[in-house]
User: Which sequence fits this backbone?
């Protein structure tokens, strides 16, 4: 019996081994292409082509009334530079971005600490924290519009009743408060994203380190500034850069809240490009304005990639 | 030098997921532990994974709060006090060095937290680095160090504060086998020099036997036995200790309502046992030749139920043995230990047939 079995087995096994089936799913090269293709198509169609079009339009006299393409050299750029609104919106963009980014990172770090903390009812707090990010931006901005309304603002109502102000502030009607409002709404919206990014960094810190610091006698602030923050620095950098990029290119909040007003005091590059190129019809100038976003975004992208690499090296 | 004592310590963990559905499942990590470490003593907590030894250490450190019971350091109850004020130093299994700080900054971190002046803490750090021979490494980052060097940095960081107690959580388990032997020796000499009360957690019995002044054997959150390495090895309190300590473990042969235990090294071919002895026939099944010793796997009859046992024959015993043979073996009469078959605890000796 056993003899027969041992004789039969190698033949059977050999026969099976002769016809190996290698499916398409076994070929890494093929798989790589299949998996990458959708994102490659997406990037080419929605990022690459519009970007090349924008460059082409920036050197043309295309308008919505006359779509024929005529090369005009740097004429659009000259016009843009002569326009005081452009410089205003460039400055607004920088103010908007820098202040928003700082606030987003600080609040994001604080919220991240809340997200990782263990307490009763934390699922509800997590839900509240993530709400601003998950609500559609147009919807939440419209409700902010009501919040900051010149007559019916609940914010003003509260401040009036507390006795801090006598008359309504008209948040969106004055240059200073309008900018502050735009920044506040934007920070409110983007902080959850930063919080989630920083939270990922906080979770990645080995628990031992915090415990070691506690045993070494470090209090809350020392642990925060000497252990937690240095260790999450690369992640915080990523959160900051995401905040910066998403602020820099954003026009939704200023558009819905103020339409760039009053008198361009909240116009940013993106919204000004839109008003000029689409609503004003001068596609060439709009494209020229939008191109100013590019070098700064490129620098930010390089910085993000560097931060990520530092994260991996650790 | 301080005493460390725990009294009636209970630590329960809730099964989180179950608790939400109303069926809370409590896991007792510590189930009534009473233990005391004398001043300057090296106490080793030994047990299999999940026995609660690390939880006990963390409770002493103040990283966990006990559900019931008291922790006393130097005679004072420290329950509820944060780790900071307990005057303890702990070395973690992972060493938990701050990866972004240099070795020097790692070592002075506890001193800075204390608010010590710069000159003084540099002096202290230099002293600790000297003692542990890591002075050339002070400018490096932890990732540039080997496992053994990291361990010494962690020790230095623990040492600079002049703690009342050292708590060590399996500090050797990340080292390779060769390093572990040297590091064990260094640890022991180091503790003897500084003389600080030390509580050391390990699952490795060789470490426990080699390092401990006394060993506390834990299982399922209870202390099974506390004693010197010799006591724990030669006079195990129950069958758990008897089989957990010793490699290969103690042989246990069932005889009526008792278990008859004897160590493998005491089961020798009959002609090698000259003192008062109990002989038994052993059918040899398999042999292993391990670092000079012969481990003989076989079945004994005659002293109780037929049981598989292991005999460890030192190199000096040259009796020829082969698999399949039955040979007369013997155990010196004073080497038998008796346990209750149902409870597993030690009982008085009973006469065994075949004594000669």
Assistant:
């Amino acid at each position: 019996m056993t003899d027969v079995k041992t004789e039969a087995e190698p033949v059977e096994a050999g026969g099976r081994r002769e016809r190996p089936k290698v499916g398409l799913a076994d070929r890494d090269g093929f798989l790589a292409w299949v998996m990458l293709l959708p994102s490659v198509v997406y990037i080419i169609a929605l990022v690459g082509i519009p970007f090349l079009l924008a460059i082409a339009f920036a050197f043309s006299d295309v308008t919505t009334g006359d779509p024929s393409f005529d090369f005009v050299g740097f004429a659009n750029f000259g016009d843009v530079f002569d326009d005081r609104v452009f410089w205003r919106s460039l400055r607004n963009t920088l103010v908007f971005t820098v202040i928003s980014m700082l606030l987003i990172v600080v609040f994001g770090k604080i919220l991240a600490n809340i997200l990782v903390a263990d307490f009763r009812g934390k699922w509800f707090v997590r839900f509240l924290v993530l709400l601003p990010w998950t609500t559609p931006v147009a919807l939440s901005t419209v409700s902010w519009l009501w919040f900051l309304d010149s007559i019916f603002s609940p914010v003003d109502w509260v401040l009036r009743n507390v006795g801090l102000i006598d008359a309504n502030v008209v948040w969106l009607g004055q240059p200073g408060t309008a900018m502050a409002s735009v920044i506040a709404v934007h920070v409110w919206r983007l902080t959850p994203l930063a919080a989630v990014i920083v939270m990922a960094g906080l979770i990645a810190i080995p628990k031992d380190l915090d415990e070691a610091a506690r045993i070494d006698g470090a209090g809350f602030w020392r642990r925060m500034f000497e252990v937690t923050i240095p260790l999450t620095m690369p992640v915080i950098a990523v959160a900051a850069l995401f905040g910066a990029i998403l602020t820099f290119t954003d026009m939704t909040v200023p558009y819905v809240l103020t339409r760039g007003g009053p008198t361009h005091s909240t116009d940013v590059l993106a919204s000004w490009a839109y008003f000029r190129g689409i609503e004003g019809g001068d596609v060439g100038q709009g494209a020229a304005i939008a191109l100013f976003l590019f070098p700064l975004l490129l620098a930010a992208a390089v910085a993000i990639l560097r931060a990520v690499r530092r994260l991996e090296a650790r | 030098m301080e005493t460390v004592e725990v009294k009636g310590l209970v630590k329960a963990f809730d099964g989180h997921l179950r608790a939400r559905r109303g069926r809370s499942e409590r896991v007792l990590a510590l189930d009534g532990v009473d233990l005391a470490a004398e001043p300057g003593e090296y106490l080793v907590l030994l047990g299999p994974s999940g026995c609660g030894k690390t939880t006990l250490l963390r409770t002493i450190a103040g990283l966990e709060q006990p559900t019931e019971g008291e922790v006393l350091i130097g005679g004072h109850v420290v329950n509820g006090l944060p780790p900071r004020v307990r005057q303890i130093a702990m070395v973690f299994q992972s060493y938990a060095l701050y990866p972004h700080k240099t070795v020097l900054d790692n070592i002075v971190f506890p001193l800075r937290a204390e608010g010590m002046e710069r000159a003084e803490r540099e002096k202290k750090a230099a002293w600790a680095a000297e003692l542990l021979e890591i002075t050339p490494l002070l400018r490096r980052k932890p990732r540039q160090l080997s496992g053994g060097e990291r361990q010494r940095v962690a020790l230095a960081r623990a040492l600079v504060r002049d703690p009342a107690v050292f708590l060590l959580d399996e500090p050797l388990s990340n080292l390779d086998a060769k390093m572990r032997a040297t590091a064990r020796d260094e640890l022991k000499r180091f503790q003897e020099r500084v003389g600080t009360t030390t509580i050391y957690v390990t699952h490795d019995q060789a470490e426990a036997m080699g390092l401990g002044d006394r060993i506390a054997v834990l299982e399922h959150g209870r202390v099974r036995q506390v004693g010197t390495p010799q006591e724990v090895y030669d006079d195990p309190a129950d069958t758990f200790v008897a089989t957990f300590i010793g490699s290969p473990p103690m042989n246990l042969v069932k005889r009526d309502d008792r278990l008859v235990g004897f160590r493998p090294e005491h089961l020798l071919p009959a002609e090698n046992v000259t003192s008062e002895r109990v002989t038994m026939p052993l059918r040899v099944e398999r042999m292993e030749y391990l670092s000079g010793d012969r481990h003989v796997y076989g079945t004994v009859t005659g002293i109780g139920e037929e049981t598989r046992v292991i005999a460890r024959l030192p190199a000096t015993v040259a009796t020829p043995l082969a698999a399949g043979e039955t040979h007369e073996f013997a155990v010196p009469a004073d080497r038998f230990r008796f346990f209750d078959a149902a409870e597993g605890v030690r009982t008085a000796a009973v006469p065994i047939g075949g004594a000669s």
In short: Confidence is low (pLDDT under 50) at residues 1-15 of chain A. Chain A has one domain: 79-313.
